[in-house]
Amino acid sequence: MHTNEILDKIKLLFPEVSIQEFEHITKGYENDILIVNKKLVFRVWKDGVRSYQKEIQFLDYLQSRVNISIPEVTFRSADFWIMGYEIIPWEELTEQILHAFSEGERDLLAKQIAEFFMAVHGVSFDPEIQTLGFQHYHKTKHFWDRLQWFLQQEKNPKILAFAEKLRAGWNDYRENTEDIRLLHNDLFSKNIICHSRQNKLSGIIDFSDTFYGDFILDFVALYFEYPDFTGKVMEIYESLSGKKIHRDNVKLFADTFALNELYFQDAHNKSIASRLVGVQIE
Predict the structure, then answer these.
(1) Helix axes 267-277, 247-261, angle to 10 degrees
(2) Which of 56, 149, 177, 262 is the most buried (most CB within 10 A)?
(3) What is the pLDDT at residue 145?
(4) Would you call 93 helix, strand, or coil by DSSP?
(5) Which helix (DSSP H) or strand (DSSP E) does residue 196 occupy?
(6) Angle at CA 108, nearest 5°, toward 267 and 65?
(7) SS3 readout for 139-192
(8) Band of residue 188 on the pLDDT scale cut at 50, 70, 90
(9) What is the side-by-side order of every strand in the sheet holding 192-195?
């Protein structure tokens, strides 16, 4: 959506917001994002009212059930699929920020993320959540289908060799159908907001990809970026939940995801994927 269209909607729907400056972020898949006065985030959905309503209701529901900051929606209009909330301050987690944390601070961050996953997974069967209509998405089938594409179509010998190694792991994999949970499903570091001056977690954002699936899928995105740190998150999660996380499966999903990211335009993910696979794609 054009920037001026979003601005006009905000002015019409929320006249109390005095817009002094703004930044239009165009990288969102599901929505357009406008940062207003460096204080407010406004998001406009691209695919309609149902996704909009589900995310807002889920955020409202979670506010009192998690111990960290998540977006608290204060501006909403279902007619125009737009919502707004105060920005969670500071910046997304980066390798530099993570490395600046002391061991104790990293352990605390890992514990907070594990507890967040516990909270989301723990409300999976609440009747109020089930009325929202989140779908069961067989993401593992998507990973398998993408691997098949690479095995059949890829010409680069290094990429093909990497895909062939993954085939053996997938042949041994059996999907978990017994512990299906509600997932955040997008916990890349860009959605983990940290206070870099105080070396602590500020909050978690972007709940637009929530669905039901194998609970270990929630660890894949962060493992793809920071496997050692995510190992600590998984260790704490296991201790708190009593569940076993099969590390080989998490790595299998992350490595298969890496193949996919080789040909996408996200420079951060593409760089990690190139390093994992051992190729450089222009």
Answers:
(1) 110
(2) 262
(3) 93
(4) coil
(5) none
(6) 90
(7) HHHHHHHHHHHHHHHCCCHHHHHHHHHHHHHHHHCCCCCCCEEEECCCCCHHHE
(8) very high
(9) 91-92, 192-195, 200-204
User: 48 falls in which pLDDT band (50, 70, 90)?
Assistant: low
Handedness of CA 97, 98, 102, 107 (dihedral sign): positive
- Which runs of consecutive H residues, i.e. helices, occur in the chain? 3-13, 49-62, 95-100, 103-122, 127-130, 139-153, 157-172, 220-225, 227-241, 247-261, 267-277
Alpha-carbon gap, residue 282 to 264, rounded angstroms? 11
Please answer whether residues 255 and 266 qualify as being in contact, where contact means their C-beta atoms are separated by less than 8 angstroms.
no
Question: Rounded CA gap, 227 and 194, in Å?
Answer: 19
How far is Cα 258 from Cα 253, in angstroms, rounded to an integer? 9
Structural domains in the chain plus CATH codes: 3-86 (3.30.200.20), 91-277 (3.90.1200.10)
Task: Specify the 3-state DSSP secondary structure of 202.
Answer: strand
Residue 45 pLDDT exceeds 90:
no
12: helix, strand or coil: helix
Q: Which pair of tokens denotes residue 45?
A: 């959905």
Amino acid (1-letter code) at residue 155 = K
Q: How far apart are CA 5 and CA 205, in angstroms?
A: 24
pLDDT at 49: 61
197, pLDDT greater than 90:
no
The owner of tokens 């190694």 is 165
pLDDT-derived band at 126 (thresholds 50, 70, 90) equals: very high
